[in-house]
Specification:
Layout (H helix, E strand, L loop, with lengths): L1 H15 L6 H27 L4 H33 L17 H29 L1 H27 L5 H6 L1 H24 L4 H7 L6 H12 L1 H25 L4 H7 L9 H8 L3 H25 L3
């Protein structure tokens, strides 16, 4: 339903309207965002444990996620490679950034920890499910939904206080071009993947609209299409981030737009230190703008496409 779109956008807008001038409070908000992501993924793991024939369902989940990821990656890389030759954008060199990952393994460790949280949720669900019953899985879904609303408020605050005014974002043509290229190529991939995943065309578009925002796509997709497809969306978007950590150092000096754009929404947070470390400070505002726009696009697009089935 379109009302679901408003329910999700409202906390995001409310959070964006709150100015935060205290550095300490902003630090607490950042920590709360991180904690909320872990909580959502834990609850998602518990919900997955409630699936019938779990082993076969997890095998199906892995196959679907690999299929969607492969198609999306081919479309994204082809489109961003084309854009790299169309725009005059070259990475520079910069000293090692403070607190930036010092190796690809270190950069990917946080992402791998998220997988561990989902696995822990599945284990918890399998352990407590026989004791508590169906109420456990219903409660997990309910808690995940409310944690998501809190997360959207906090993310709205982060976006408002990112130091990047909307005017500057809208005037950054390179950031806009990268975000538009990534979004359009992802949606085309979703259309192609839909019949292969036994989904309708609009559900395929919704699956492709996460743009790397795995915590959001997992819960929104899972709420409408079930925990199996929520898991597919999660692993599709998380694998994007893992591959981005590997691609950025390898291609940023030859195909700068590709390196910045492939991380999708994560280019304004998780993959940003790697972009800055290997591409220089000139890449930072472009990456932030691209990630910012994709973060704003993702929730309404997912819910709009899902609403077409209602």
């Amino acid at each position: 339903m379109l009302s679901g779109l408003l329910i999700v956008l409202l906390p995001l807008v409310l959070g964006y309207m709150v100015p935060v001038r205290s550095g300490q409070l902003l630090s607490l908000i950042n920590q709360a965002v991180s904690g909320s992501v872990y909580a959502i993924l834990l609850f998602m793991g518990v919900s997955l444990a409630g699936l019938e024939n779990l082993a076969s369902q997890l095998s199906r989940l892995g196959g679907y996620a690999l299929l969607l990821f492969s198609i999306t990656t081919v479309f994204n890389l082809a489109a961003l490679w084309w854009l790299s030759y169309r725009v005059a954008l070259k990475a520079g060199h910069s000293p090692v950034v403070k607190d930036a990952p010092t190796s690809k393994l270190a950069a990917m460790l946080g992402s791998l920890m998220l997988v561990g949280v989902v696995i822990g949720g599945v284990a918890l669900g399998l352990l407590l499910g026989p004791l508590v019953g169906e109420v456990l899985f219903t409660t997990a879904d309910w808690l995940a939904e409310w944690v998501l609303y809190a997360l959207l408020v906090l993310i709205g605050c982060q976006l408002r206080n990112s130091g990047m005014p909307l005017k500057q974002i809208l005037l950054n043509r390179l950031g806009l071009a990268i975000a538009a290229t990534l979004a359009l190529s992802s949606l085309l991939a979703g259309l192609l993947a839909a019949p292969l995943l036994s989904l309708s065309w609009n559900e395929g578009l919704a699956m492709a609209s996460g743009f790397g925002w795995y915590s959001l796509s997992a819960i929104l997709i899972g709420d409408q299409l079930g925990p199996l497809m929520g898991g597919v969306a999660f692993f599709n978007d998380l694998t994007r981030e893992l591959l981005a950590f590997i691609l950025i150092p390898l291609v940023i000096h030859r195909h700068t737009a590709l390196a910045i754009g492939y991380g999708g929404a994560t280019s304004m947070d998780f993959t940003l230190p790697v972009i800055q470390q290997h591409g220089g400070v000139a890449c930072v505002p472009i990456a932030v703008v691209s990630g910012f726009i994709l973060s704003l696009l993702s929730p309404p697009l997912i819910l709009f496409f899902l609403s077409l089935s209602s």
